[in-house]
Write a structure and sequence with these properties.
This protein has about 300 residues and is α/β, with parallel strands linked by helices. Helices cover about 30% and strands about 25% of the residues. The chain has a single domain, classed as Metallo-beta-lactamase, Chain A (4-Layer Sandwich). The protein binds zinc ion (ZN).
């Protein structure tokens, strides 16, 4: 067993070093990455296929033709944190702001208040959270679009269906099925229990955005049990493509921070379970088309 202990120590050190170097990089580069990204988002062609940008861990921007969306956009865990006002001011107009749940890396009341003050943004909010968000973010009631479990709404060219997810201790956590024309994307949000009963049964999924999580305080060890559980969850949807997200939250301790290395472990395993599925890990600020057959 001695060799195994040495091997695990090596993995742990490698993962910690990897996170530390990413932290240093983002502390220096995050404002520049943000600036490039919002320019790309704002100027992206209206006739391009639906495209998303990862802003930070699980914060996303999404263009569906002329519709500009933000999903779980939060500065709270970024290297710039709450000193982000200069970055907020460069955020292009947002038509639809979507929330999955209220963990700090997904929910930034200061940013939402800022967006609300600019006007013209609708906020799609899980209905059990509406009252709390309205109060904490000073939202006008008319600007909130509540959505209930299993409800479907149509906004512009985007059809959205909500479903409740198993984010243990966070009961009002929603995922979304997004349909744009023939393309279907699933955003399950954060999952802490990978049981698949109760998940929506969908005929086809073009793209699954998977927030990597492989067990509480398990990020410094290689744990096949959690990798299997996550792959079973992903396989439920039979996605044609998986995009990995929720990586490099540099505010987290190393034992709870997920990296490209963990995404790689999942990808390795998924390729044996779903050999036809393509996996990709977007870089921060990179435009990623949600149309299958394109990057
Ligand atoms: Zn969460």
């Amino acid at each position: 067993m001695r060799w195994r202990r040495i091997e695990l120590n090596t993995i742990a050190r490698h993962l910690s070093d990897n996170l530390q170097s990413r932290r240093s990089y983002l502390q220096a580069q995050f404002p520049a990455i943000w600036s490039r990204m919002v320019t790309s988002f704002a100027t992206y062609p209206d006739d391009a296929p639906p495209t998303m940008w990862t802003c930070y861990t699980s914060s996303l921007l999404l263009r569906v033709h002329t519709l500009r969306c933000a999903i779980d956009l939060s500065f709270r865990n970024t290297p710039v944190g709450h000193e982000s006002l200069c970055l907020e001011r460069t955020l292009p107009p947002i038509d639809l702001f979507m929330l999955t749940h209220l963990h700090g890396d997904h929910y930034d009341a200061q940013l939402i208040r800022f967006i609300e003050q600019r006007g013209k943004t609708a906020f799609l909010v899980p209905s059990p959270l509406v009252e709390r968000i309205r109060q904490e973010c000073d939202l006008e009631k008319a600007h909130i679009k509540p959505i209930s479990d299993r409800e479907t709404v149509q906004i512009g060219g985007l059809q959205l269906r909500a479903f409740r997810t198993r984010h243990v201790n966070i009961p009002d956590s929603f995922g979304y099925v997004l349909d744009v024309g023939q393309e279907r994307m699933v955003l399950p949000g954060d999952i802490r229990d990978y049981a698949t009963n109760g998940l929506p049964a969908l005929e086809r999924v073009d793209c699954l955005l998977f927030n990597v999580w492989l067990g509480r305080q398990r990020a410094l060890s290689f744990d096949p049990t959690w990798i299997e559980a996550a792959c079973t969850f992903i396989a439920h949807f039979l996605p044609r493509r998986v995009l990995f997200s929720h990586l490099y939250d540099v505010s987290r301790p190393p034992e709870d921070a997920w990296t490209f290395i963990h995404a790689g472990w999942l990808q390795d395993r998924l390729l044996t379970v779903l050999p036809e599925t393509r996996c990709y890990t977007p870089y921060l600020g990179e435009p990623v088309s949600l149309s299958i057959g394109r990057k």
